[in-house]
Amino acid sequence: MRMVDLIHKKRQGHSFTTDELRYIIQGYTCGDIPDYQMAAWLMAVYFQGMTDEEIADLTTVMVESGDTIDLSGIRGIKVDKHSTGGVGDKISLIVAPLVATVGVPVAKMSGRGLGHTGGTIDKLEAIEGFQAELSNEQFIEHVNTYKMAIAGQTGNLAPADKKLYALRDVTATVDSMPLIASSIMSKKIASGADCIVLDVKMGAGAFMKSLADARRLANTMVKIGQRLNRKTIAIISDMNQPLGCEVGNANEVKEAIEVLRGNGPEDLQVISLTIAAHMTVLGGIYKTFADALHNLTTILQSGSAFHTFRQFIQAQGGNPDLADNPERLPQAANHIDITAWKTGYIQQIDAEAVGTAAMMAGAGRQKKGDAIDPAAGITLLKKSGDPVAKGERMAVIHTNKKTAEEALQRLQDAYVITEQPPQIQPYIHEIVC
């Protein structure tokens, strides 16, 4: 078998066998296949695409490139959730304790943020003492005891994906549907869950800008899951503006706590409850989505899920008093107001621009290894559809930097004000199963 022949085969639009894909992925991961040949192969895949069977086989061989997590020691049906990334996305902090409260074990491996999207681990580490690094034994013990654990991803989980992504990033092949889908699903399959709920973000602040593209990605990933014997469902949710009103690490934790106490923004409640309801149906707790949604709404409003969250924080070394008193989480020294330049309605808020502004204020990383400031972030006082008067505050930047002119300008530009109110987008666009 020769790599040059396989590049030519895909260039001609033909499909690969499982053995051919294994040869390519194993060869590249161990260094036998050079970057220049792999780059040519990626470009051939970009233009010719892959069949559903090829994508499932590619996912499988990427899983085989590294470790897989054995969750057989956890009692019950293990259900995981994954978001394709968004701004202000603190859904995992709400969904995991909500689902755990009704007895579905949540064994979640999460990552750190890069660029304009935040990472769940970064948010949790804003809580003093929180430990994201758990041994496999500790991870399983925590889930069996508390019904949930959230830990950092292991270094050798689907290493082929990490190496491939770095090459895709510099060869303009990131936005290939087969490569995106296999990248996401290889990590989810390797993480060991029995069932997977995917939150596919769509809109200005997401990787998938259109509903058509989000639908294609959702369908592709659901088919991968089904072919690999994982019950999988995808929810296409809106990301045309940030989720909730807080962007940043400590302030997103505060907002998640507010929702877990039965309050908080409507969009966060609706999307969290939708995802949690599907997770509990897959986990066998409820028979129908309607029953799950009704019961979980009651549980969320009662504050029971907050107690699960507090217990989870304490179990992983975090200071539980900060859950009781979130105002004691890290606070920035400087607070810069963004005011309306005219009277009207908020037509839209560019979610990606808001995420970038938060990163510039210190809340995110421009490259791996950058330090982040847990206190930095943005509070949105006005969102799409809200009326605003000239001079009224629309948002606040929280930063410990002495100057934040670039972030200020980026956030100002994110807002569009018009004379007429906009048509409001639904929080959930579609369910794909």
Automatic annotation (TrEMBL):
Enzyme class, spelled out: transferase
Similarity comment: Belongs to the thymidine/pyrimidine-nucleoside phosphorylase family.
Statement: the UniProt record of this protein carries the keyword Ribonucleoprotein: no
Molecular function as annotated in GO: pyrimidine-nucleoside phosphorylase activity
EC id: 2.4.2.2
Regions annotated as coiled coil: none
Pfam families: Glycos_trans_3N (PF02885), Glycos_transf_3 (PF00591), PYNP_C (PF07831)
Glycosyltransferase is among the record's keywords: yes
Keywords in alphabetical order: Glycosyltransferase, Transferase
Name of the protein in question: Pyrimidine-nucleoside phosphorylase
